[in-house]
Fold this protein.
Amino acid sequence: MTAIITIANQKGGVGKTTTAINLAAALANRDKKTLLIDLDPQANSTIAFYDSGEISNSMFEVLSDSRVGLATVIKPSKDPLLFLAPGRLALAKLEQQLAGQFDAPFRLKDALAPVEKDYDYVVVDTPPSLGILTVNSLVAGTHLLVPIQAAYFAIEGTDDLLETYERIRARPNPGLKVLGVVITLYDKRTNISKDTHGQIRSVFGEVLFKTKITKNVRLEESPAYKETIFTFAPKSPGAVEYKKLAAEVIQRVEEDRVARHAEDAA
C-alpha cells in the first residue's frame, strides 16, 4: 500500500514546505520512489525544483478539470526516485470554484487513484489553512504529519487541525492516521525552544518524533539553487536531521501497515 502523507498546519512559517521537500527527498534517498504534490498556492515546493515559466499544467488543472490526469503534470527531479506534481498561484481560485460541488473533497483522491501504485510514498504540501485544498489532502491521505515550530504559541491552532482530522476520519476517510508531530526551527541555544519542546511533548507524547529539525541557514538557501538539502549541503545538520526523520517515518509507516494487516485479518 502506498503511504500518502499529508503535511499540514494552518499556521504559516512552521517549516511545512521545507519539511515536505526534504522529507520527500530523504525518502527517495532511501530508495523509496516518491511523489511530492504541491497543493499550496504559493507553490514554494514547485519553485524549489522549477522556475514558474517551466510549468504549464499543474495541480490546479488536475483538480479543476477531470480531463487532465495527474500523470500528465508529473515532472522529474534531479533524483531519479523523486518526482513533483507542481502547484501554482491559480490554486487559490479552487476554494470558490469548487464551492457546492458534491465531489469537491475527493478531487485529489480520485486523481491519485490511477498513479499512486507507481510510488512507495506520496508527500503532499498543503497551504496554511484548513480550506478545500487541505481537506482534499486529508481525504486522500493515509497519514497526517504535523510540523510545529519551537516557539511560544506553537500549539495554538492545532486543536482546529485535529478537529478537522477527526471529522475526516469520521466519514470520508476512516483510515487516516496521525503519523506524528515534528518540531521544526528548533534552536537549542535558547530557553524558548527548550521550554516549547517540553510543552509540545507534554501535549503529544509518543506521537512526537524523536528527531527535531534545527534552524539551519543551508535549509533556507537550498531552494534558491533548485536543490534539496541532500545535494546542496549533504553534510549539514539539516541533511542529517531529515535523514533521521525519514527513517522514523518509514518505521512508523511499516508498523502501521503491520497493524492494519492484523486488523484486517482479525
In short: The mean pLDDT is 94. DSSP finds eleven helices and seven strands in the chain.
